[in-house]
Design a protein that fits this description.
By secondary structure, the protein is of the alpha+beta class. About 20% of the residues lie in helices and about 35% in strands. The chain is built from nine helices and 18 strands. The strands form three sheets. Strands 3-2-1-4-5-7-6 form a seven-stranded mixed β-sheet, sandwiched between helices. The termini are far apart.
Length: about 375
């Protein structure tokens, strides 16, 4: 792998970086495999006061990262003999591999060798791209497989894993799975063709949006040498939602809002100074078919008086005072006077299997 990576540390969302760093205790002894230019290495050293050993194949990146380590090795981890010889056994509280394992050839033996380097109480923390993500299935449904410079379809990936196939790989190493976590990302965030559900038929959308692993972007595995560890069950897949709300103002000005809430989204505020202006709120359901109800829209003038506004919902099925959508829905609002703010709130509805089948019958 000759590609040069310089990806920055992402800690302001539920990223793989954040989830892995949150699992590391201060003052630990850490082996970081694949440091790149050392963004995570720096955080481990300066914020968590960890004693870090680094491994990196790119000499230029290694020079940047090595200033934050107690020792550093510029090696190709596919050279298993060199890896085993240079790295101490039974030494590390944590071993970190963030999006590295998909770039190596002998996955099983590399995991076996690195597992020996853990203390008996240590943890091996890996993030692995999920090839069962909907962005991959969407490519295949279009009879394509578009590689990227970075991302899920990175053109230097030589191994692909689902959560289940990687768990089988773990079983071959003698390590134990103690926790399975993941990161969420919906397809439109990947800069690649065919990343929008609107390109697909109703039947295809149904299959994609019911696919339980469809928005797991990276699987995160915590592994241990402890033979008494009990494999942790996967968490409820509906624990988080990740919707993108787009408010379109006059003159095509857009305001984007990311939502991590499955229940109530209240009080989206935006300034509406124009008379007779048209505004729209676009709701993009992601994890599966989305329902919403109890929509309330009020406009507030300079006198702080709230006025209820009428609205129209497009591209949604209306049943029992609730709206359901497989794709982008729009709440259209006409503003008939000058107001300081518009407040919008609504409540999300979980769509059960029975309700889903009933809705499908109505739209066929």
């Amino acid at each position: 792998m000759n590609k040069k990576y310089n990806l920055h540390l992402i800690l302001d969302t539920e990223s793989a970086h954040k989830k892995i760093i949150d699992s590391i205790q201060e003052n630990s002894v850490v082996l970081e495999v694949g440091t790149s230019h050392g963004h995570m290495t720096k955080y481990l050293k300066e914020e968590l006061n960890c004693n870090v050993t680094g491994i990196e194949i790119d000499p230029e990146a290694a020079r940047d990262a090595s200033q934050y380590t107690s020792e550093f090795f510029v090696i190709d981890i596919d050279n298993i003999e060199s890896l085993d010889e240079k790295i101490k056994d039974n030494h590390y509280d944590y071993i970190i591999m963030c999006d590295v394992i998909e770039h190596v050839r002998d996955t099983t033996n590399i995991l076996k060798i690195l597992g020996k380097k853990l203390k008996a109480s240590g943890l091996f923390l890996l993030s692995v791209p999920n090839v069962a993500h909907n962005i991959v299935l969407m490519q295949i449904l279009k009879n394509e497989f578009n590689y990227q410079d970075v991302g899920m379809m990175d053109n230097t990936h030589i191994r692909w894993f689902t959560s289940n196939s990687f768990k089988k790989k773990i079983d071959e190493t003698g390590l134990k799975l103690v926790k399975h976590d993941w990161t969420y990302m919906t397809p439109e965030y990947e800069n690649i063709p065919h990343n929008n559900y609107d390109e697909f038929s109703l039947f295809e959308k149904e299959v994609l949006l019911k696919h339980l692993n469809g928005h797991f972007f990276q699987n995160i595995f915590h592994l241990s040498r402890d033979i008494n560890s009990v494999e942790a069950p996967i968490n409820n897949i509906d624990a988080y939602w990740f919707d993108k709300i787009k408010v379109t103002h006059p003159n095509n000005i857009e305001q984007n809002i990311d939502v991590f809430d499955r229940s109530v989204l209240a009080n989206i505020k935006f300034i509406a100074p124009k008379k007779g202006a048209n505004y729209s709120l676009i709701i993009n359901p992601t994890m599966r078919m989305r329902g919403f109800k109890n929509i309330s829209i009020t406009a507030i003038g300079s006198d702080n008086i709230e006025v209820n506004k009428r609205f129209v919902v497009e591209n949604a099925i209306f049943i029992d005072k609730s709206y359901y959508s497989f794709s982008n829905s729009r709440i259209l609002i006409n503003i008939d006077g000058g107001y300081d703010n518009i407040n919008i709130s609504f409540e999300y509805i979980d769509v059960t299997e029975d309700l889903l089948m009933s809705l499908l019958q109505r739209v066929r």
